[in-house]
């Protein structure tokens, strides 16, 4: 009867009962209060204040070859953050205080302005409790800083999701810099907080990604925005320049002007700096003045670049947030971009998810639909034919990886990565810009197949599946240290299951429950069967084991669809 007592206790807890009501009086009365270290609090508050000011998009600046020291003084006043220059470090790198700075832009954060303007000089900056110090890139990049990131609002009550976020960050942001791959950076979980020891550059990317994730999580399911979002500050600045090139118009004309003279003139009148990759031009034997002609009138910056480069058989591409290059070999300037794709509408097949309760209900209903559970016999009756496992992210991932440049993905040995971030229903993808365009087109095509009727049909399918009466045989595993309960004990277990699922469920004529050898045989509605299985798992009587997922080891092109019917 020892086993019976244990079973009775666990089931009582599983259905919300309380065994020892008197224990509630011995629980803590509240939270502990502390008397903080005043010095540390002051230092931290000042640093956090400076960091907030560095992130605020308040700066409008137009600097044309402004001396470095004047530029820093001006920016310091605008940002209201003390800024100093590490003069010995600059001298060691051959950089003077009069080195010219050129940058213009509106509604930029001080951090973005410093990053873009100092990059050309090989400089960077460090943030501390005294403000910002301008120093060499090598010195800044090699210095590790410890920061904490609270994920409480992002993960809610799902504490296990903090570890998932840890893995996303370590796998997708500066992967080689973390200790598991031989780097110096570390990332650990404490409650709902990440403790990260990393360089300033990596911290900047983490901050940007988590802020973006918090914003995306709040997206309404009404008019849900599905355009991909740059997931790094660097890539966002690059995209902003691409957009500006399209919209900026200038009055210009050239008549057989030498290419270099034309670019020098253009650099005076548009929101970026264009340079010429002379080495690549020499490699294809393009020498001499290289005359270009452009008819009089107003032209967009994009059309000007297109006309100039096409006439010479060249290409142009944006290489940072403030510059572009003309080259014969654009491939060497191509870098992966980090983008976030909102896919809530796709992974939930159009169902309008409005709260965590609805999300958890759908996950519970479709949990056993995945292909990995095919081999578990007693789950087959719980699996509804044609019903997808929700969220259906694995099918979507496989569709993308098998359709769009399959050999470019990490699963087949390529450099590009794809991760599904469940808390915000997004795909996080690192790929080349032109590949991102192909992914966006594919997602658009998939969305064309979805209509309001798609969701309505799925809801009806779920309801019909819940209503269906099915038979399941659950093989029970008794604890080796105790004997199987006698007949009275088994009957008590039956009563616990009946009460735990609701007595009214057992009043329908088709319903039955009984023991047969070492198994429990149940005939019930499919939704009730799922409740029973959950109780048996909590009682440690049933142990479903998923088949190892081998889809990542096999070629993506051979993938045949997701659990319970695939993606559309």
TrEMBL record:
Residues annotated as signal peptide: 1-21
Keywords: Signal
Source taxon at top rank: Bacteria
InterPro entries in UniProt: Type_IV_pilus_biogenesis
Name used for this protein in its record: Secretin/TonB short N-terminal domain-containing protein
Lineage: Bacteria, Pseudomonadati, Planctomycetota, Planctomycetia, Pirellulales
